[in-house]
């Protein structure tokens, strides 16, 4: 079984409850499936769930080089120089990243409002980046953006390999 979930903001990427925070079980009442990869509590978007351990490992393991596409709303003006640094790979505290595909994009027309909304400062511009990576280190996209001077305000994973979150509102899922 393979399930595609649009994980909402502020949901823990686990089924077991710890305290009052929302968890995956609040949205997916299917037993025996587990996340293939993770999304941080403050990240949104496509999460692949499966009951197939081999498929789960293939999706999550960077040696299989499965591309993951993210949309990042960042603080600051997205420059070609910053995008080029992302394309070359950036140095993080746990070593260099692989080169990424990076381009500046407009805010997607299909994007849902985040609850709660991000903090917007009128005196500081923001922009959007589409970033495609083949790794999956802890908070990697956020750290990569910060390394080029563009801290993330909002992060949405919109694709994992050929799977997309197209047509899924936050909290909705479908079988793939």
Question: What would your notes on this structure say?
Answer:
- With about 180 residues, the chain is an alpha+beta fold.
- The chain has two domains: about 1-65 and about 160-175, Pseudouridine synthase I, catalytic domain, N-terminal subdomain (Alpha-Beta Plaits, 2-Layer Sandwich); about 65-160, 2-Layer Sandwich (Alpha-Beta Plaits).
- About 15% of the residues lie in helices and about 35% in strands.
- It has helices spanning about 55-60, 80-90, 140-145; strands at about 1-5, 10, 20-25, 35, 45-50, 70-75, 90, 95, 100-105, 125-135, 150-160, 165, 175.
- Strands 1, 4, 5, 6, 9, 10, 11, 12 and 13 form a nine-stranded mixed β-sheet that branches.
- Strand 7 and strand 8 form a beta hairpin.
Short description:
With 176 residues, this protein is an alpha+beta fold. It contains three helices and 13 strands, in the order E-E-E-E-E-H-E-H-E-E-E-E-H-E-E-E.
Annotate the secondary structure layout.
Layout: E1 2-7, E2 11-12, E3 22-23, E4 34-35, E5 44-50, H1 53-60, E6 68-75, H2 80-88, E7 91-92, E8 95-96, E9 101-105, E10 126-133, H3 140-147, E11 152-160, E12 163-164, E13 173-175
Parallel strand pairs: 2-3, 5-11
Antiparallel strand pairs: 1-5, 1-13, 4-5, 6-10, 6-11, 7-8, 9-10, 11-12
| Assembly state of the chains shown | single chain
The secondary structure category is: alpha+beta
Mean pLDDT metric: 93
Please name the CATH topology of the largest domain: Alpha-Beta Plaits
CATH class of the largest domain: Alpha Beta
Counting DSSP E segments of at least 2 residues, the number of strands comes to 13
Could you give me the name of the CATH homologous superfamily of the largest domain? Alpha-L RNA-binding motif
Largest sheet: 9 strands, mixed
Distance between the termini: 8 Å
Query: Which architecture of the largest domain does the CATH hierarchy give at level 2?
Result: 2-Layer Sandwich
Low-confidence stretches: none
The structural domain count equals: 2
Q: Quote the beta fraction.
A: 25-35%
Please trace the helix and strand order, writing H or E for each element: EEEEEHEHEEEEHEEE
Radius of gyration: 16 Å
Helix content: 10-25%
Helix run count = 3
